[in-house]
């Protein structure tokens, strides 16, 4: 027996539309599968490096159960809110997403090192904002202080966040990286990607340590932008990728 299927014009169009929708869904599924998920181990490492730039060691509390679409560009990291306790991670690619990751100071490793090597303490008054030198510091042997620093080399050149008194232990939260750029400094503003770079002259409107964000005025246009401090006299627009490392 031969079966004959007859369709009205309306039914045929509906059937064709259904097939087309199924095909689109299949292509989308294949594309998502090929793109994969974001490497959570690598992302956690990047967040830890970003959060620890100001001194000390901070551990992100990243939920590894998350399934984030693989980001086609390097995710942008910035502090969210006050107190530097939460990092905003934002992917600006076609599969855009953003998450908020809390970070905590990891005391265990510094405390263990301090117990073995001692804790750095201040030998004389240090005013707020002053750069610490080796002459300002000494190591108290066999002492352990939560969040304390055990190596003078990790403190020398850092800036005191507040006034420090003689004999006071130096904790990671009490020091900050010295500004690489100061307000009023001429800077080169860079943007681009590996193999392609644009630069312009500007003037810093804020102090900034490497990795921090500051306001910069474009010397030619007078426009103001947020830029990331790369080093003395150098700032990058967000999203800039270093030609050598491929990182911001």
Automatic annotation (TrEMBL):
Cited InterPro entries: Flagellar_FlgA, FlgA_N, SAF, SAF_FlgA
GO cellular component: periplasmic space
Main localization of the protein described in the UniProt heading: periplasm
UniProt keywords, alphabetically: Bacterial flagellum biogenesis, Cell projection, Cilium, Flagellum, Periplasm, Signal
A Pfam family recorded for this sequence: ChapFlgA
Entry function: Involved in the assembly process of the P-ring formation. It may associate with FlgF on the rod constituting a structure essential for the P-ring assembly or may act as a modulator protein for the P-ring assembly.
Designated name of the protein: Flagella basal body P-ring formation protein FlgA
Organism whose genome encodes this protein: Tardibacter chloracetimidivorans
């Amino acid at each position: 027996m031969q079966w004959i299927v007859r369709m009205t014009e309306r039914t045929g169009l509906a059937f064709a539309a259904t097939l087309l929708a199924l095909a689109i869904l299949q292509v989308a599924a294949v594309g998502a599968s090929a793109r994969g998920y974001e490497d959570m181990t690598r992302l956690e490492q990047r967040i830890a490096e970003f959060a620890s730039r100001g001194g000390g060691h901070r551990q992100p509390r990243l939920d590894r159960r998350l399934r984030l679409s693989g980001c086609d560009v390097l995710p942008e990291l910035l502090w969210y809110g006050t107190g530097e306790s939460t990092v905003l991670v934002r992917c600006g690619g076609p599969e855009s997403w953003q998450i908020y990751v809390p970070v905590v100071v990891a005391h265990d490793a510094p405390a263990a090192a301090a117990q073995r090597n001692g804790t750095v303490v201040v030998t004389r008054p240090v005013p707020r904002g002053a750069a610490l030198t080796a002459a300002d510091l000494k190591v108290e042997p066999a002492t352990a202080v939560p969040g304390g620093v055990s190596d003078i080399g990790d403190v020398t050149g850092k800036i005191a966040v507040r006034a420090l008194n003689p004999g006071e232990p130096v904790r990671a939260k009490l020091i900050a990286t010295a500004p690489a750029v100061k307000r009023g400094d001429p800077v080169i503003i860079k943007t681009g990607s590996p193999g392609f770079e644009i630069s312009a002259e500007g003037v810093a409107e804020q102090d900034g340590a490497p990795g921090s964000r500051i306001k910069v005025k474009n010397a030619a246009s007078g426009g103001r932008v947020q830029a990331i401090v790369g080093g003395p006299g150098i700032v990058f627009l967000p999203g800039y990728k270093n030609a050598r490392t491929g990182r911001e």
